[in-house]
Amino acid sequence: MSTTTLPPTKKDAPKSAPAATTSDRARSERKLGWLLAGPAFLVMLAVTAYPILQATYESLFSYRLTDPDNRSFVGLQNYGVILSDPLWWQSLWVTALITFVTVLVELVLGFALAMVMAKALSSIRPVVRAAILIPYAVITVVSAYAWQFAFDINTGFVNSWFAWIPGVGTDTDWFGDFGTSIFVICLAEIWKTTPFISLLLLAGLAQVPEVLQEAAKVDGATWWQRLWRVTLPNMKAAIMVALLFRTLDAFRIFDSIFVMTAGANGTESVSFLAYRQTISRLEIGLGSALSVLLFLSVVLIAAIFIKGFKVDLAQARGEG
Amino acid sequence: MPNAPGRSGFRGPAPAPLRGRSRSRRRGVAGAAALLVTAGTLAACGGDSGGTPTLTWYFNPDNGGQVELARRCTEEADGRYRIETAILPRDASSQREQLVRRLAAKDASIDLMSLDPIYVPEFAQAGFLAPVPEDVAERVTEGVVQSAIDGATWDDELVAVPFWGNTQLLWYRKSVAEAAGLDMTKPVTWEQIVTAAQEQDVELGVQGIRAESLTVWFNSLIESAGGSVIEGNADDPENLELGLDSDAGRQAAEVMKMVAESGQAGAAFSTENESASAAEFEGERGGFMVNWPFIYAQAVSGVEGGTIDQAVLDDYGWTLWPSVLPNVPSAPPLGGIDLGIGAYSANVDFAYEAAECITTDENQAYYMINEGNPASSAAVFDAPDVVEKFPMADTIRQSLEQAAPRPQTAYYNEVSGGLQREYHPPASVQPGDTGPKAAELIAAVLRGEQLL
Question: Cα–Cα distance between B395 and A232 in angstroms, integer?
Answer without folding.
Answer: 72
